[in-house]
Amino acid sequence: MRIVSGGVTDVGRVRTNNEDCFRIVAPLNLFVLADGMGGEAHGEIASALAVETVMKHCLDAETNPAARVLGKVEPNWSANTKRLSTAVHLANRSIFKSAQEHMEQHGMGATLTAAWIDGTKLSIAHVGDSRAYLLRGGNLLQLTRDHSLVAEQVRRGILTIAEAEESEMQSVLLRALGAQPEIEVDAEEHTLFPRDVLLLCSDGLTRVVTEPEIAGVLQAEPDPVRGAEELVALANERGGPDNITVVVVRLLKDSKGWFSWLRRGERKNLGANGNAGGN
User: Fold this and answer.
1) Closest CA relative to residue 85, chosen from 189, 187, 179, 180
2) What are the structural domains of the chain?
3) Short-list 141, 106, 138, CA closest to 122
4) Which of 62, 228, 276, 279 is such that its CA lies 20 to 30 A from the CA of 161?
5) Would you write out the chain's pLDDT as a tens digit for each of its 279 residues?
């Protein structure tokens, strides 16, 4: 499969600073998104620390493949899933340590959702209420579980989904990076297929844009960057009450026929002449 991706982050219409952060590491097919918390307590520092820590630990996989694994792991997990889960544990420690060492950072934290693709294997690691979705055959499936008070109340039957969407307690998290020296990380693996679309997003999108609307945009717009831009614009049309970050990853069937090699040659020549390019 061939992978194309793009991401957009926006401050929204209400906030004055953007505490979201994301990175796409194309050579690794690694995608990391964090939503900082703390406002005056430097949420943007927490999200940047989270993303950079995860990215660095995964990039070090080739030079230090035997790095210690942290947290609970399943025996059948791939090396990538173990490393990604460990990276999130390290991110939690980095944020907690920084907040302990700098008084002005006390109370900062972050959610984090990361995806790592290796062939047809998708590794997911997650803490908080940022989300990962998979669009397949027109159906949008939420891969992650929100670690929020209202989500837990829905799971226990205390609230309906409709009541949860109207609750003033939506921002109350039960689990976030940086709050404690150790954290429980959700991690799992999935098998991917051509034409699958992976979406990572902060809650600035999902608070105001419905899942059918998200699926509609992903189906209608084949370009990942434009798709992300359209989703961010839609959230802003709904008031943009929070920072909004969207990362879209599309898996394309890579033909091995002679025509595909001809097309690759055309793209290479155009790129060399400065008339075309891309990540």
Assistant:
1) 187
2) 2-131+175-272 (3.60.40.10)
3) 141
4) 228
5) 899 999 999 999 999 999 999 999 999 999 999 999 986 668 999 999 999 999 999 999 888 888 899 998 898 999 999 999 999 999 999 999 999 999 889 889 999 999 999 999 999 999 999 999 999 999 999 999 998 777 667 777 877 777 777 766 677 788 999 999 999 999 999 999 999 999 999 999 999 999 999 999 999 999 999 999 999 999 999 999 999 999 999 999 876 654 444 444 433 333 333 333 333
CA neighbours within 13 Å on the CB side: how many for 212? 0
Q: Could you tell me where the beta strands, DSSP code E, fall in the chain? A: 2-10, 20-25, 30-37, 109-118, 121-127, 131-136, 139-142, 186-191, 197-201, 244-252
Length of the chain in terms of residues written: 279
